[in-house]
Amino acid sequence: MKLKDLFHIKKSRKHPIKRDEAGFSLRARCFVLFEGGKRPLEIVEELKMERNTVCKYFRDWERLGPNFERQFAFVKQLFKKEAPDRDSNIEIFSKMLGIEKEQFETILSEPYGLRRFLSGKFYFPVSSDADHKMHVTLELAVLFSDHLIRKAGKFEDVYSALKRYMQEVKEQREEKDADIEEENKTMAFLHQVLAADMENERLGRVQPDRLSEEERKALLKFGIESEMKKTEVIYWVRIGTLIAEGLTEEQAREKMYQDLANKGDLNRAKFLRGFQDKIHPLKKDDQLPPSTPLPTASST
Questions:
Q1: Residue 6, CB-side half-sphere exposure with 13 Å CA sphere
Q2: What are 89-142's pLDDT values in tens digits?
Q3: Which of 5, 32, 73, 117 is the most exposed place for a label (fewest CB within 10 A)?
Q4: What's the CA gap between 28 and 22, in Å, rounded?
């Protein structure tokens, strides 16, 4: 470990910053002149500076935007050690950035930490959600590009499939939300019944009548229908995924069946075929690709 790390010695500049009578560095003076409409070549002559240095400051000024030095000076005042609300300001900025208060104080203690922070040179958790959305967008773009360019697909097919898939998912979510709401009402009712039953038992009262045979059958039917709807939602989401990969709806239907048959899971394949015939039947004039029968016991 280096001595400066062991004793927490801050790294110093090789050449100290030269400031004018008002306390402005050459960089800050350039920024002020840029905001006043001066061009780089004019500043080279006026301040007797190197042309490359002035051009670099000009690029920084364009990237950071106008009034950066004024913004920096304002924010710097908020975090001065003698500022009365310094701790509150640090806490507000930390919450806004999604980091701990100690982490933000570490940034402020670093050389040029505040300037680097205002220049957008730090990465914070608050940016992770936007980055994830950009990543998903990039994945979709690559998928569509592969279909349109490499597979000679048509834009209309991709657009139609995506639009239909999004509509189906929306409807499925609405149905699922309705099922959840109904299930929550049923569970709330059951909790009330159980609470009343427990209270009667605690007080030694006569137990109320249990559910009738018809009521039990109704509850069983509700549970079965709820699970069937969940299964149907999973099935249509899988169909939509295969359509997005370039298959037609009929090809996606057949692929799900074939995947099970190829694994030798004949019972599940047979069950899936019956399930498909019920909720996803083929149109009479649209039988391609043809259905492949299950292999018999002798053929396997």
A1: 3
A2: 888 888 887 788 888 888 888 877 887 887 777 777 666 777 777 777 877 777
A3: 5
A4: 11
Mention every residue, 6+ apart, whose C-beta is less than 8 A from residue 300.
264
Q: 């047979």: which residue's tokens?
A: 270
Report the chain's terminal Cα–Cα distance, integer Å.
Answer: 68
Q: Cα Rg for the chain, rounded, in angstroms? A: 34
Distance CA 27, CA 155 (A): 51
Strand partners, 19: 25
Residue in this structure with the two tokens 């991709």, named with its chain if needed: 158
Distances (CA, A) of 173 to 162, 165, 176, 280: 16, 12, 5, 18
Query: Residue 25 and residue 60: Cα distance in Å, rounded?
Result: 15
Burial category of 21 from C-beta neighbours within 10 Å (exposed 0-12, middle 13-18, buried 19 and up) = exposed
d(C-alpha 124, C-alpha 188), whole Å: 42
Distances 37 to 30, 44, 201 between C-alpha atoms, Å: 11, 14, 86
Query: Residue 115 to residues 55, 234, 266: CA-CA distances in angstroms?
Result: 19, 51, 66
Q: Where are the domains of the chain?
A: 18-126, 127-153
